Amino acid sequence: MMLRVKQFLAMAGLTALEAIRQPICLLLTAGCVVSIAAVPLTIMHLFGEDGKQVRDSAFAIHFVFGLFMAGHAAGTLLSGEIKKGTASAVLSKPVSRELFFLSKFAGIAAVILVFSVGATIATLLSERVAEKFYYTQALNGYVMDSQTGMMLFFSPFLACICAGIINYRFKRPFTSSAFWMIIIFLLIVLFVSGFFERNGQWRPYSLRLDSRIFAVSILVSLALVVLSAVAITISTRFDIMPTMILCSVIFMFGLMTDYILGRHVAESYVCGFFYTVLPNWQNFWVADALSGGGHVPWIYVLHAGLYAVVYTVGVLCLGMLSFRHTEVK
Question: What pLDDT, on a 0 to 100 scale, did the predictor assign at position 270?
Answer without folding.
Answer: 80
